[in-house]
From TrEMBL:
It is found in: Nucleus. Its main location: nucleus. One of its GO terms (cellular component) is PeBoW complex. It comes from Prunus yedoensis var. nudiflora. It holds the Pfam family Pescadillo_N. This is Pescadillo homolog. One of its GO terms (biological process) is maturation of LSU-rRNA from tricistronic rRNA transcript (SSU-rRNA, 5.8S rRNA, LSU-rRNA). It comes from the Eukaryota. One of its GO terms (molecular function) is RNA binding.
Length: 327
């Protein structure tokens, strides 16, 4: 009998053909390790544990289909362009050309995660089921202080804005079901669209950040969670006929009265929607009464005042009503 043998160059079979180590995946994609981790976090790809580890137990394995899925991702090419652009900025700084470095920073390319959010969550209920860790992370960074070179001030303000928008929707629609105070923080549980969402908010105390925390991985998760929470807030606000993003009074924001500003925004939108419905019914019947339109015109002045921030005005109280300026 002729002995069967494997011809040279034949592909592997079993786990050796389905799984690949992290080092080989990085070499195949031609990216660095931090960039590979970032893409995996944004795309929701995680390591796998094969039944038989061909290369040993000290390696991290990924499924070959996941690696090929990343290889054809347009975001990967965009991140490569951004990395090459950052090298231009460093080169200008090394040559002591601050004008060119400043110009390059102003023209730095950016990217959006809207398509990735829609790919990972084709249904809105899927996004609601995955909001627990998202809300906990956003509320955590909203309470942290800004650290130079690590956590930017804009990132802290964005997290606070998203957290306040979520809290305003929950309080406005009466979705809160349970609250529990513990040593770690305050646990909240709300029921939205039939789904129970639970998150942890830290106590309003001064947070101490240690040096052994790795914020690089956390910031990559936060980048995706910000896009996910903005997508959820937009969908929820539109479900109650409220425009998103909310237009708030800058004077109230300067006084750290974000919740009060959001409540006024909700009231203005509810009144304007009621006015639109009544106006459409009056136009259909052909009967217009001055007693009904008179108070509604006064109520619409608040909505018009909230839109004044789009004009080039430097007055601090431009969005406040005239009666409040005289007080």
């Amino acid at each position: 009998m002729v002995k069967h043998y494997r011809p040279p160059g034949k592909k592997n079979e079993g786990n050796a053909a389905r799984f690949i180590t992290r080092s080989k995946a990085i070499k195949q994609l031609q990216v660095s390790l931090p960039l590979f981790r970032k893409v995996c976090i944004l795309k929701g790809i995680f390591p796998r544990e094969p039944k038989k580890k061909v290369k040993g137990n000290h390696h991290t394995y990924y499924h070959l289909k996941d690696v090929s899925y990343i290889q054809h991702e347009p975001l990967l090419e965009r991140l490569r362009e951004i990395r090459a652009y950052q090298q231009k900025v460093k080169k200008a700084e090394a040559k002591k050309n601050p004008d060119r470095a400043t110009l390059l920073r102003q023209r730095s390319p950016a990217y959006k995660l809207d398509k990735i959010v829609l790919q990972r969550y084709p249904k809105f209920l899927d996004a609601l089921r995955d909001l627990d860790d998202c809300l906990t992370m956003v509320h955590l960074f909203a309470a942290l202080p800004a650290i130079e070179g690590c956590i930017e001030v804009k990132r802290i303000h964005d997290c606070r804005r998203l957290a306040h928008e979520w809290q305003a929707y929950i309080s406005r629609t009466h979705r809160l079901r349970k609250v529990f105070v513990s040593v770690k923080g305050i646990y909240y549980q709300a029921e939205v669209k039939g789904q129970k969402v639970t998150w942890l908010a830290p106590h309003p105390l001064q947070q101490v950040v240690t040096d052994d925390d790795d914020f690089n991985i956390m910031l990559n998760f936060l980048e995706f969670y910000e896009a996910l929470l903005a997508f959820a807030n937009c969908h929820l606000y539109h479900s109650i006929n409220v425009k998103y993003p909310p237009i708030l009074d800058p004077r109230l924001e300067a006084l750290a009265a974000d919740h009060y500003a959001l409540s006024r925004y909700f009231d203005a939108n509810s009144r304007s929607s009621a006015w639109d419905r009544q106006e459409s019914s009056l136009s259909g019947s052909g009967k217009v009464e001055s007693q009904q339109i008179g108070p509604l015109v006064d109520e619409s002045e608040l909505r018009l005042a909230q839109l004044q921030h789009q004009l080039s005005s430097n007055e601090p109280g431009a969005l406040m009503p005239c009666g409040g300026c005289s007080r």
